[in-house]
Design a protein that fits this description.
Elements (H helix, E strand, L loop, with lengths): L3 H6 L17 H12 L9 E5 L3 E9 L19 E9 L1 E10 H6 L5 H24 L8 E2 L11 E4 L2 E5 L13 E6 L3 H4 L5 H8 L1 E4 L8 H10 L10 E4 L1 H18 L5 H5 L6 E3 L8 E4 L4 E6 L3 E5 L3 H6 L1 E14 L6 E4 L6
Parallel strand pairs: 1-13, 5-6, 9-16, 10-11
Antiparallel strand pairs: 2-3, 4-15, 6-7, 7-8, 10-12, 12-16, 13-15, 14-15
Helix pairs in contact: 2-4
Length: about 350
């Protein structure tokens, strides 16, 4: 992920605020802006990006069967033709916005001067990319139904509640009674419900229709966990393009486990096993919670955006005059979808790292 200094050094190379008075971006500008948001994270550049003019519709999916070659007989047509399998994936983009403001005094007094406007815009674009990846992975429309935990209520797996100003999702059914920390996982602060409810992310989609290995019975990371998860995936998808997507802490714990094995039992572990369990490389994703690991080809994860993006600014109007400020807002649409759910697997219920 770029450092603040790297972002400052490239200030002005993305979307120039001076050209944003008309608001609606041209298709090429929209494409570059979205690309910058994807470049803000490790996973972003690896997933598939699709741009559409319509906010909802279908994306074509084409497949070809295996073992389609046949023997050739001279001067003969046996009528055999290889078939093409076609299907569609539906998408429905959700509209989101990111507003911010800068005081004129800040622009005047800061050592960067007028360039500060471009620097802040780049910083906002980078943070937008980080937040969007969080939504692509963790979005859950059930968060719109969040309510405060009450000991007299029963909750099902997947229900989201607030408790002591924190947001939790139940991983086990809860019957009426006192709060039991083993039945739910923390997914953020209570205020994060307004963020997560925007759309269903990839993790929820995989949990509903992909291959899931429950590791709640394990007390530590083991190589067997990776093998058992891989075995759930049909062999045709194990084609060298798979990646383990996990949190940085989980990746570091895996390294610690291997080091402890070497220290405790002697011998040596091949260097690539630290970063490629089961010969599959890992991708560090800070937005993934420590209790989950996702297995898929990143290109199987699709983000649909529309060309109808707007970045608007104004230093006019009553509020701008009275507060001596410039106001900005970025509008865009998105939908995270999965091309082939059968080509996804996920480890859940991993032991706590605390």
């Amino acid at each position: 992920m770029p450092t603040n200094q790297q972002i400052i050094n490239k200030a002005g190379t993305a979307i120039q605020t001076g050209s944003l008075t008309h608001g609606l971006l041209q298709p090429e500008q929209a494409r570059k802006f979205i690309q910058q948001t994807f470049d803000a994270t490790n996973l972003g550049p690896l997933v598939r990006h699709v741009m559409r003019t319509s906010k909802s519709g279908e994306i074509d999916k084409i497949g070809i069967a295996s073992r389609i070659l046949r023997a050739k007989v001279e001067n003969t047509d046996d009528g055999y033709r290889a078939g093409v399998n076609t299907n569609v994936i539906e998408y429905a983009c959700k509209a989101v916005r990111l507003p911010w403001e800068i005081t004129e005094e800040t622009l005047r007094e800061n050592i960067e001067g007028q360039q500060l406007e471009a620097i802040i815009t780049d910083l906002m674009t980078t943070q937008l990319g980080v937040d969007l990846e969080d939504l692509y992975l963790n979005g859950d429309e059930k968060a719109s139904q969040v309510k405060e935990f009450n000991s007299s209520d029963a909750f099902a797996i997947g229900d989201i509640v607030t408790n002591n100003k924190k947001l939790y999702k139940f991983i086990k059914a809860h019957t009426a009674g006192a709060w039991n920390a083993s039945e739910a996982i923390e997914i953020g602060a209570a205020a994060d419900a307004d963020f997560l409810k925007l759309n269903d992310g990839w993790i929820k989609q995989i949990n509903s229709g992909g291959h899931v290995y429950d590791a709640s019975g394990e007390n530590s990371m083991k190589l067997d966990i990776f093998y058992k998860t891989l075995q759930k995936l049909p062999n045709k998808y194990n084609n060298g393009k798979l990646r383990w997507l996990m949190s940085p802490k989980r990746a570091q714990e895996w390294e610690l486990y291997l080091m402890n094995q070497v220290i405790g039992k002697g011998g040596a572990v091949p260097e690539n096993v630290y970063t490629q369990p089961v010969h599959i490389p890992t991708v560090s994703c800070p937005s993934i919670s420590d209790d989950k690991i996702v297995l898929t080809d990143p290109k199987n994860l699709v983000v649909v955006n529309t060309y109808g993006m707007k970045i608007r600014k104004t230093n006019e109007g009553k509020e701008a005059i009275m507060q001596d400020k410039r106001f900005y807002v970025c509008h865009l649409d998105y939908d995270p979808i999965i091309e082939e759910l059968d080509a996804t697997a996920m480890i859940t219920g991993l032991p706590s790292l605390d």
